[in-house]
TrEMBL record:
Belongs to the NAD(P)-dependent epimerase/dehydratase family. This is UDP-glucose 4-epimerase. Coiled coil: none annotated. Pathway: Carbohydrate metabolism; galactose metabolism. It catalyses: UDP-alpha-D-glucose = UDP-alpha-D-galactose. Its EC number is 5.1.3.2.
């Protein structure tokens, strides 16, 4: 299938492009580079052995989006493009609602116009809200405590309404905590400035770029007092997109949500220690106060994805850490590091 990847220069989109090529599909990338760089494109060519067509378009622009669809004529769309920094969305909700909602509407509108009927949407475990049970199965009562999360809830609802009223087929994928990097060392997460997520922060501390990690809270009701999360390797997540794409392309589903996680809770301290093992470097940390809004424990019930998509996340926490470390060493400044010296 010709698969348009919106936000395809980003962290998850770039890894999904690789796994789509491996599965025999033809990806096409569109990105505004608001949170990424075209420097990823030659890396993708190196990894896949193929030049993936890429368009520089802000999907908020409806006319430009429509023109893209007229030219690219995709069979399916994987819609990753969004702003994703949770705390920034609290400070600047307008930008989040405009970017995330308007770009989703532009994309769906263009799909309906040109007869493209298959969409995968990047959602998040954040749609289960603050009252969710620690291990969450897919459910339809959605809420979120932040503007970022509410854009995901709203877009899920918009897509569900449209799918039920048209022949659009939608797979909603609710990710837990994607981490890791491509084992080549050529693709990975390249956060601008100080990372807000745990894994890139740990990697920068191990590399000596930052002095120490602050663990947000050591007094949670968990076995070691730190929060439990469901970390999954970004390549497993990418494979989940290929599985969902092939499932909804069959045509029997109008809209369906799947959790994508490993289903295994891992604490902050466990991840730190796994990273120390994988890197052979110490990760100094201090235990600080809790971060506002953090839930003590969140992990996926993966039953539905296993039984309906035949997908499960297979890569271990050790692989997540080893691949992150390889990426960190080869690209100390992310894609700004220039040409990477790839391993393996
Ligand atoms: P990312 O920022 O690396 O990738 C998103 C890409 O979308 C970027 O390349 C950005 O430049 C592009 N983009 C944003 N707005 C655009 C617009 N208007 N037009 C064109 N391009 C635009 O983020 P990611 O981690 O790869 O996340 C991908 C998707 O997965 C997002 O929708 C995010 O909300 C969702 N998600 C991410 C996580 C996570 O922890 N990384 C967890 C759950 C859900
Ligand atoms: C993981 C754990 C922190 C940083 C976020 C979004 C969520 C989704 C994925 C997009 C928590 C702890 C972190 C640090 C720490 N994104 N931590 N010190 O919060 O589970 O999820 O990313 O949809 O919506 O909220 O991920 O990586 O920020 O935190 O102790 O410096 O690490 O308290 O327990 P989170 P995270």
């Amino acid at each position: 299938m010709r698969v348009l990847i919106t936000g395809g220069a980003g962290y998850i989109g770039s890894h999904t492009a690789v796994q789509l090529v491996r599965a025999g599909h033809d990806p096409i990338i569109v990105d505004s580079y608001v949170n990424s760089t075209p420097a990823v494109l030659p890396r993708l060519e190196q990894v896949t052995g193929r030049r993936i067509p890429a368009y520089d378009i802000d999907l908020v622009d409806e006319a430009a989006t429509r023109a893209l669809f007229d030219e690219a004529r995709p069979d399916a769309v994987i819609h990753f493009a969004a702003l994703k920094a949770v705390s920034e969305s609290v400070d600047d909700p307008f930008s989040y609602y405009r970017n995330n909602l308007q770009s989703a509407l532009s994309v769906v509108g263009a799909m309906l116009d040109v007869g493209c009927r298959t969409m995968i949407f990047s959602s998040s475990a954040t749609v289960y809200g603050d009252g969710a049970a620690p291990s969450t199965e897919e459910q339809d009562h959605l809420s979120s405590g932040t503007p970022y999360g509410r854009t995901k809830v709203m877009i899920e609802q918009i897509l569900t309404d449209i799918a039920r009223a048209s022949d659009l087929r939608v797979a909603v994928l609710r990710y837990f905590n994607p981490v890791g990097a491509h084992p080549s060392g050529l693709l990975g997460e390249s956060p601008a400035g100080e990372p807000s997520n745990l894994m890139p922060y740990i990697a920068q501390v191990a590399a000596g770029k930052r002095e120490r990690l602050t663990v947000f809270g050591g007094d949670y009701p968990t076995p070691d007092g730190t929060c439990l999360r469901d970390y999954l390797h970004v390549l497993d997540l990418a494979d989940g997109h290929v599985a969902a794409l092939e499932k909804i392309a069959e045509g029997s589903i109008d809209v369906r949500a799947w959790n994508l996680g490993r289903g295994t809770p891992v604490s902050v301290l466990e991840l730190i220690h796994a990273f120390e093992q994988a890197s052979g470097r110490p990760v100094p940390y201090v235990v600080g106060p809790r971060r506002a809004g953090d839930l003590p424990a969140v992990w996926a019930d993966t039953t539905r994805a296993r039984s309906e998509l035949g997908w499960s996340a297979e890569r271990s926490v050790e692989e997540m850490c080893a691949d992150t470390w390889r990426w960190q060493c080869a690209n100390p400044d992310g894609y700004d590091s220039g040409i990477a010296t790839a391993h393996g």
